[in-house]
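Um, can you check?
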Amino acid sequence: MSSEVSGPAVGIGQPAPPPSFMIPVTVACGNFMTGLDQNVVVTALPGIGKSLGEAPSHLGLVLTAYVMSLIVALPASSWAADRLGPRRAYCIAVGVFALGSVLCGFADSFWALIGARALQGLGGGLMGTLGQVVILQSFPRDRTLKINTYITLASQTGPMVGPLVGGALTTYVSWRWIFFINVPIALFAALSAARLFPKPAKPTGLPFDLPGFLLIGSGMILLVLGMDALGSGDAVGWIIASELAGAAVILALAVSYSLRASFPLIDFRLLSIRTFRIAMLTGGGLDTIGLGSIMFLLPLLLQIGFGMSAVRAGSLTFLVAFGSISLRAFLPLILNRFGFRRVLVTNTPIAAALIAGFALFRADMPLWLMAGYIFVFGSFRTLQWGSTGNLSYSDVPPERLSRFSALYYVLWQLAVTISIGQASALLSLFAGPGTHAHASDFRIVFVIEGLLTLTALLAYRRLTPQDGINVSGHKLVAPME
């Protein structure tokens, strides 16, 4: 099954023109901006605090406001795509993001900056989901694997260069320019989207599911707050329990409501599609929790456990992204040659072993050996995530692609949130209350995360060699008679 290709009307018997390569370039620009702005402020926070006269303890809100708003925007993206069309909705999202960026740059108080960052996150959350909808609606399934590979490279480049760009601009120009640099990129993306993106034949007129939006948004925010408090080690126990229990109850109500609603904002019925369920929940959900924990645990091990400087630890952790980029270009070839099932069944134990293998790190370990291991881990991590991400939409009907994208990003954000929270909680548990974690505490957590990742193999073994062949192009070899 291939995705429907949208495009300008053509005469009877005339083939539709192929979609422009500038469509994925435009989506990549949007993904680069959203990825950049999640990390660009990290190295600029001291300068921001000094300029606005804010205490360092409150500066984390500059990051949290963006992420919270991004999470809230995710459920609304599918409705925007169906009601307004991907072209108009994407242009609006880019405009909101650009407006938020300008307001951030001109903010004259700390709370004005927080409000502008929330506006940025709103536009960024819509851009990410709508960009995926555009790609899946514009290109046939046998081309989306390669296209998504290059778009993901852009998405990963933003977080990689973010701290470097933020530090350079803050040092040599002003922290305000870390937001102003978005404006020309956003202008290009908006103009390109307005000219090239598909538009529906007619608006769907779907009503906005306000109860679903409030349930999912509030449940996600409570989960983020609860998981963050769970790992902080200094939060009151009953507050943590209340936040996590409230999140569980509200999200359960959201699922129950959405399954009964006529026009749900998030279509949980998509989980009835076996390949999507395995890729994003029973398999992909578990390995995302394990794999995602490494980017939280590894920098802490290097700095707290081994006493490295932030610069040296950051340089080593940076190699995860390099390993990821090095493998991305070969992902279409690997999936085409071996298919989704063989790749995931083979790669899951390797990824799990690599996660547990971080327990073997020692402070006197040669840096070249650490660097090589981290690079290899990044390569196998992206093979795992790239495979599940592309498998997830392989059997989704074209008319449900916008609903798929919204649910995809919600499930992904849930897994990442749980990943960091549970890793932090485990580390606090083994370190003990009121004490700093030691290298031995990290080793236990790495082994647990590896075992958690390995459990995803039970789901991936249920895949068949035929699953996802319309995306991977994998040719099945008929048995000899």
Notes: Residues 87 and 193 are 6 Å apart (CA to CA).
